[in-house]
């Protein structure tokens, strides 16, 4: 940094300080008795608390009736001797049909049924993969 640049920075700081001290003289004014009295009353008054709001009632979760346990190939809709590729394709297709995200705008009963079907598909797919080794 050159001498000229340093001089410009220092003179800018001095002029800025002078500007603030001249044009903002009441920034640190002394508090009057009225100000002290108002502050004392404000600080000594008990806070006004609103009554606690009651949370909205939560609807009871709707569980679909338990379905009878079915074999994995019936759940996935494939033959009992289907290969891994057929099982995976059937699983993905069924998962798209019963995905909870796709039925988010439907009734609570249909969303609960979609969650149940999705869980049933996951379990059937895991059993199928274990059976196929």
Structural class: mainly alpha
Net shape: elongated
**Rg measurement, Å:** 37 Å
Uncertain stretches of 5 or more adjacent residues: none
Which CATH-level-2 architecture of the domain at 72-132? Orthogonal Bundle
Termini separation (Å)?
A: 75 Å
Share of β-strand residues: under 5%
Order of helix and strand elements from N to C terminus = HHHHH
Number of strands: 0
Question: Class of the domain at 72-132, according to the CATH hierarchy?
Answer: Mainly Alpha
What name does CATH use for the topology of the domain at 72-132? Answer: Helix Hairpins
Q: Please, what is the average pLDDT?
A: 79
Biased composition (Basic and acidic residues): 30-40
Transmembrane segments: 6-24
Region (Disordered): 30-66
Protein name: J domain-containing protein
């Amino acid at each position: 940094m050159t001498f000229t640049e340093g001089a410009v920075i220092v003179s800018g700081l001095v002029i800025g300080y002078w500007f603030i001290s001249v044009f903002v003289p009441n920034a640190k004014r002394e508090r009057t008795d009225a100000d002290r009295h108002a502050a004392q009353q404000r600080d000594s008054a008990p806070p006004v608390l609103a009554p606690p709001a009651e949370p909205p009632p939560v609807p009871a979760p709707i569980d679909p009736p338990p379905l009878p346990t079915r074999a994995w190939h019936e759940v996935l809709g494939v033959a009992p001797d289907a290969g891994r590729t057929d099982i995976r394709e059937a699983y993905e297709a069924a998962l798209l049909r019963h995905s909870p995200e796709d039925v988010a705008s439907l009734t609570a009963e249909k969303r609960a049924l979609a969650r149940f079907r999705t869980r049933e598909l996951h379990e059937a797919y895991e059993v199928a993969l274990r059976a196929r080794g």
